[in-house]
Design a protein that fits this description.
- This protein has about 300 residues and is an alpha+beta fold.
- The chain has 3 domains: about 1-80, Uridine Diphospho-n-acetylenolpyruvylglucosamine Reductase, domain 2 (2-Layer Sandwich); about 95-215, Uridine Diphospho-n-acetylenolpyruvylglucosamine Reductase, domain 3 (2-Layer Sandwich), CATH 3.30.465; about 240-300, UDP-N-acetylenolpyruvoylglucosamine reductase, C-terminal domain (Uridine Diphospho-n-acetylenolpyruvylglucosamine Reductase, domain 1), CATH 3.90.78.
- It has 8 helices and 18 strands.
- A hairpin with a 2-residue loop joins β6 (about 95) and β7 (about 100-105).
- The chain starts with a helix and ends with a strand.
Length: about 300
């Protein structure tokens, strides 16, 4: 049934790739291929792709920079709609007024940070070095150094579950720790407005560099990973719990608990998705037994 779907993609008219190496697109560099990867050029194409997938019960996923996902070893027999990774569409960024940036979902946080710096706008420095797209950052309510994307996003436009283009203001986005409205609703984030403040470019750059250097010093950026593997449990820190449980450097196959930062499971030596999942489950089991805390995955396992 899925074989003829390529004809529908060609009718819709967006770039696509069959048997795309989805695992290689991901930041942890683990997993197999997907049946179809598509790079839509506009919202109408997204609506048509989703409607067509639903007609034949084909699973579909919306992805940005693929930085917090784990792809199964046998891949995904479905449709992957990519707005960030290796794409050129949904990457527009502009100023609405002196302090508000409009950016489409595929724009990387890195790009938005540099755009803010160029225009002397402060308040987004915390995000410099987070390897997410704007869409992914909003979905996860990405954050660092006690600041989150919810603190700067004023509104978000998305395709809702009925195929309508909708704009929500910040309060309606239901932001909480690593959570947003989009966790509970099947929507496609299209764009967002970010409100910042006027600042001094030199001071902004200095703060950006400070945050980036802290990441480089403390995080295992030299290895593929999906970022922080676990959410922060209430009243504790995942990395400390893992370290205190004696799991620093623990390996399963090619997956390892980073020696540099225990909150990261890294692809140390040609890991498989099965290795990563087994290691995650082992960490959860040992930490629960030794500390009483249950660690919830921040990484999304497809």
């Amino acid at each position: 049934m899925y074989e003829s779907f390529v004809n529908r993609i060609e009718e819709i008219g967006c770039p696509y790739l069959e048997n795309a190496p989805l695992g290689k697109y991901s930041s942890i560099q683990v997993g197999g291929t997907c049946r179809y990867a598509v790079w839509p050029e506009n919202t109408d194409q997204i609506k048509k792709l989703i409607a067509s997938a639903k007609e034949i019960d084909m699973p579909y996923y919306i992805l940005g920079n693929c930085t917090n996902i784990l792809v199964p070893d046998d891949g995904v027999n479905g449709l992957i709609i990519l707005l960030g990774k290796s794409g050129t569409n949904f990457h527009q960024i502009s100023l609405i007024d002196d302090t508000t940036i409009h950016c489409e979902a595929g724009v990387s946080l890195q790009e938005v940070c540099m755009f803010a710096l160029k225009h002397g706008l402060k308040g987004l420095e915390f995000a410099y070095g987070i390897p997410a797209s704007i869409g992914g950052a909003i979905y996860m309510n990405a954050g660092a150094f006690e600041v989150e994307i919810k603190d700067v996003v004023t509104e978000c436009t998305f395709i809702d579950e009925n195929g309508n283009l909708v704009t929500f203001l910040n309060p309606d986005l239901q932001f909480s720790y690593r959570h947003s409205y989009f966790h509970d609703h099947s929507c496609v984030i299209i764009s967002a407005n970010i409100h910042l403040e006027k600042g001094n470019r030199e001071e902004i750059k200095e703060k950006m560099d400070t945050f980036l250097n802290r990441r480089i010093a403390k995080q295992p950026l030299e290895y593929p990973s999906a970022g922080s593997t676990f959410k922060r449990p209430g009243g504790a820190y995942a990395a400390k719990l893992i370290d205190d449980s004696g799991l620093k450097g623990y390996t399963v196959g090619g997956a390892m608990v980073s020696n540099k930062h225990c909150g990261f499971v890294i692809n140390y030596d040609n890991a498989t998705s099965k290795d990563v999942i087994a290691l995650v489950e082992h960490i959860q089991k040992v930490v629960a037994e030794k500390t009483g805390y249950h660690l919830e995955c921040e990484m999304i396992i497809m």
